[in-house]
Amino acid sequence: MLLRNPDGDIPKIDKTAYVCKSAMVTGNVVIGKNVFVSPHTSIRADEPGSAIIIGDNCNIQDNVIVHALANTKVTIDDFTSLSHGCIVHGPINIGKICFIGFNSVVFDCLIGNKCFISHRALVKNVSISDRRIVEDGGVINKQDDANKLGEITGEILEFMDNVVQTNIMLARDYSRLKEV
Length: 180
Prior knowledge:
The protein is α/β, with parallel strands linked by helices. It has one domain: Hexapeptide repeat proteins (UDP N-Acetylglucosamine Acyltransferase, domain 1, 3 Solenoid), CATH 2.160.10. It has helices at residues 143-147, 154-176; strands at 2-3, 12-13, 18-19, 24-27, 29-31, 36-37, 42-45, 51-54, 59-60, 65-68, 73-76, 81-82, 87-94, 99-100, 105-111, 116-117, 122-124, 127-128, 133-134, 139-140. Strands 1, 2, 4, 5, 7, 8, 10, 11, 13, 15, 17, 18 and 20 form a 13-stranded parallel β-sheet that branches. A 7-stranded parallel β-sheet has the order 3-6-9-12-14-16-19. The longest helix has 23 residues, at 154-176. The radius of gyration is 15 Å and the shape is globular.
């Protein structure tokens, strides 16, 4: 469902993106090419002055929440995966080719390119350099801890690419299906 926000902003969705009918996209939201938005997601830029920009070839999986506070922006760069049940709350900037794991929460932070935030992690009020990994259940809310994060491996990058490619295929294939 696409909704206008109280300021009158309407989501702008590329024609190659697929947004499931049970997803809710509200307000000043831009969704790029080949994006797959799964069932029961909520993408809301409804507070005054808020904005959400989702780059090309991203996937927003089941039960994800993306929300921007008033006068803030959420930017999710190309080839990024937001996996099942995670919460992405603005202000936030997530770089290219990132993965946010199941039930993780990321808020008020800058996440570099090719970062892997594993499952059930909390990342808040920090900047994370490129090619870093936050382990399962990790809590990164101090910059000193963010500076000590390890680098991702080629195996993880391959996993991230597989997730993106699968969801690009799903966006394409679901867009071709006739509604039941």
